[in-house]
Specification:
With about 375 residues, the protein is an alpha/beta fold. It contains 13 helices and twelve strands. The strands form three sheets. A seven-stranded mixed beta sheet has the order 2-8-7-6-5-3-4, sandwiched between helices. A three-stranded antiparallel beta sheet has the order 9-10-12. The longest helix has 21 residues. It starts with a strand and ends with a helix. The site of pyridoxal-5'-phosphate has 17 residues, from helix 3.
């Protein structure tokens, strides 16, 4: 099996697996219990909090553990709103952010969705225009660091500065950037979303890291875990894995940089292929994360091409994993390059373990699929 879907999720790093296996033996107790077993379990939770605080450059008291990136985005976007005010958000955000924004719109918040350029960028000028049109009313600007489908790097630092000058808070969904690109991209935002499973940690755990003074509103009612902001018993075993994943993510950009050459080789090979409706087209031509290639293959439906490649043992996707199984074309690509190209798109995302041989084998698999279709 050739796994080229690292943006959907990444395999557990060996040291993460080791930490989790060990925590299964010693950290099974309830981390809220005050006795020794509970305190041991709690040490895993607090160690994860510390590692996340370092990754996001926030105070350890300002890290709230969640069930993943989705819940973190829900919490972060709701933070400054009580039924009024303006939210400015990129139209290419992950559904967990965009759908939260659309829910807020039904609750009295004015939501401005900023459209991307054809190259996949939420332009600083477009954010500036939205801030100007709603001067003094914008409470939050939310733009992710790296797009999950195209890998396009967003101008998050410039946007953060602009938002701050306009008196708004800034949220940065760093789920696809952390562990893969330099930390500067998301550091400095008031609210940062992270998910362990994209860092080679476990699924089902994530975090909102915020700068001091930003208050979150609980989505759930219950106990006092996570200072009451996120009630519910934390999973110490998942936290043991998250701690290791977050620490290794600090060196992630250096590990990912060499993948660019492999990605470029794969992309160049695919661009030389003839698919039934003409040559493939790259989606997201702005500067990108080094491991992502999103291509439209004219004459194909993305999900059909993915299925044909799956039969060849190649795992890729035609959109974000959370939309898998729906017939809808990617909203990200639809906004960038239109419906037609979105329908025929396939995302390839490489990772730290991808080898040159795998790239060669993936190209051969594509070639066989195309040859059968011509
Ligand atoms: C950019 C981005 N944000 C948020 C999420 C949601 O994270 P989770 O799967 O942990 O809920 C994802 C998952 O693909 C993502 O790519």
């Amino acid at each position: 099996m050739l796994y080229l879907d690292w943006n959907a999720t990444a395999p557990l790093a060996p040291e993460v697996r080791e930490a989790m296996t060990s925590a299964m033996g010693s950290g099974w107790a309830n981390p809220a219990s005050v006795h020794a077993a509970g305190r041991r379990a709690r040490s895993f939770v607090e160690d994860a909090r510390q590692a996340i605080a370092e990754l996001a450059a926030v105070d350890v008291r300002d890290v709230v553990l969640t069930s993943g990136g989705t819940e973190a985005n829900n919490l972060a976007l709701r933070a400054p709103f009580h039924g009024s005010g303006v939210l400015v958000i990129g139209a290419t955000e992950h559904p967990s952010a965009l759908k939260t924004a659309r829910a807020l719109a039904t609750e009295g918040v004015t939501v401005v969705e900023v459209q991307p350029s054809e190259r996949g960028v939420i332009e600083v000028a477009a954010i500036a225009a939205a801030l100007e049109a709603h001067a003094g009313q914008v409470r939050l600007v939310s733009v992710q660091a790296v797009n999950h489908e195209t890998g396009v790097i967003q101008p998050s630092r410039a946007i953060a500065q602009l938002a701050r000058d306009a008196g708004a808070l800034v949220h940065c969904d760093a789920v696809q950037a952390a562990g893969r690109l330099p930390e500067e991209l998301w550091r400095g935002a008031d609210l940062v979303t992270l998910a362990a499973h994209k860092l080679r940690g476990p699924k089902g755990v994530g975090a909102v890291a915020s700068l001091c003074g930003v208050k979150l509103q609980p989505l759930l009612r219950g106990g006092d875990q996570e200072r009451g902001v996120r009630p519910g018993t934390q999973d110490p075993i998942a936290c043991a894995g998250f701690a290791v994943a977050a620490r290794r993510a600090l060196g992630g950009a250096a590990r990912y940089a060499p993948i660019e050459a492999l990605r470029d080789r794969l992309e160049a090979g695919l661009l030389r292929e003839r698919s039934p409706g003409g040559p493939p087209i790259v989606n997201g031509t702005a500067p990108r994360a080094p491991h992502v290639s999103n291509l439209s293959f004219p004459g194909w439906l993305g999900p059909e091409l993915c299925a044909a490649l799956d039969l060849e043992g190649v795992c890729v996707s035609s959109g974000s994993a959370c939309s898998a199984g729906t017939a809808d074309p990617s909203p990200v690509l639809s906004a960038m390059v239109g419906l037609e190209r979105a329908r025929s798109a396939v995302r390839l995302s490489l990772g730290e373990d991808t080898t040159e041989l795998e790239v060669v084998e993936a190209l051969a698999a594509f070639h066989r699929v195309f040859a059968r279709a011509l």
